[in-house]
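Possible race condition, two jobs.
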Amino acid sequence: MINRDAVAAFVLFAGFLAMGLGVTSIELFPGQETEVFSPRTMPAALAIGGAILCVLRLVQCLRHPEQALVALGGFDWTRTAMLCVTMIGYGLLFEPLGFVPATAAFLCAGFFVLGERRILLLTLLPVVFTLVFWLIMTRLLGLYLAPGILAG
């Protein structure tokens, strides 16, 4: 019997394989070809490490299927699809709205999809988390995050 762990391992393996193939399209500046650490290093390491872990998990699932935690039929596909829709919406709204409103809306929607119904927690936690993260990224680390509608 194929369980959800095996399916997840296979899907993640395909993703890591695609990531590994995509590493070759990362362009290097002149002189970076000979450097030990380049823009390709971390993505390649993550792709290789992730693929190895997925293969190990897949082998484990196939060798001991009786140890499956939950069968594939018990998986909540509706909730999964709704989370995917919220992620796509976040990606589409990121540029026009900007980081802070898009991220707060995404977290609020994600919490709602996952079952949170307390209004104070649904609104306050995403906003506070997003603002703290924005302050760290922009003020402490000096990174640019899309301002969107906040720029005026």
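Job #2 (started ~2 s after job #1):
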Amino acid sequence: MSVWTGDVVVVRFSTSHPTTGAAQDADVLPVGTLVVAGAAMADVVTVADVGIGLCTASVTMPTVVAGQRAQLQIAATVAGVAGVGIVWDDETRNPIGAGLTALGDTRLANLDTAVSSRSTYAGADTTGTTTLLSRLSATRAGYLDNLSAGAVALEATLSTLVASIWTGITGTAANLIADHVLRRTTANVEASANGDVLSARSLYGAVARLVHKVSMAESTMTVTQSDDATTLTTAAVGTDAGADPTISIDPS
């Protein structure tokens, strides 16, 4: 705990019979004195009787400096016996500047006006202000304006762009894409790192069975890659000596 200028200090203290120790009111209302740095102060200490052998003492702290001892001294007479004692003892400490270094005190002293007034640009140059403003060209300002539109606006712009591209795919463009797909060699497909791994169960695998080397050995059919050497896949072949031989296939 600590106290400072303007604080109201309220303490309770008791009085008792000097012989029996039983709670007992003083012969007259006790008198309180505020003591600061060992000196009795003239400030009024208000003492009130709140019960048998029980009183309160209150005082408003005068102007003090940090690091002083502040005490409440009570003088009372009980059953004709006078006594004096300290019922409260504390240290004065500034709640705002406590623990500040000399540098910290100086910086606080420099806050002699509202902080908001320090952030107003009045057109005068400060360190780097002119350089910063000169670099903010119209183009860069436009970039900042686009950022201020937010992610929603940017997403809407992208969606519009995608829709425009899709609408812009003409028949000629679609034919061009189809021609490239149909004319692409399987060797280029095999050399590409895009898509899934090479598999017989794919459109590429289906084409490979038609255009790559296919060999038969007993009941196993082997389909190679485009080099006619590397095995792409194998398949078990079922035979029937009594079945009709196939001599040609002529699509309609």
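Residues 174-236 form one domain.
Logs attached separately.
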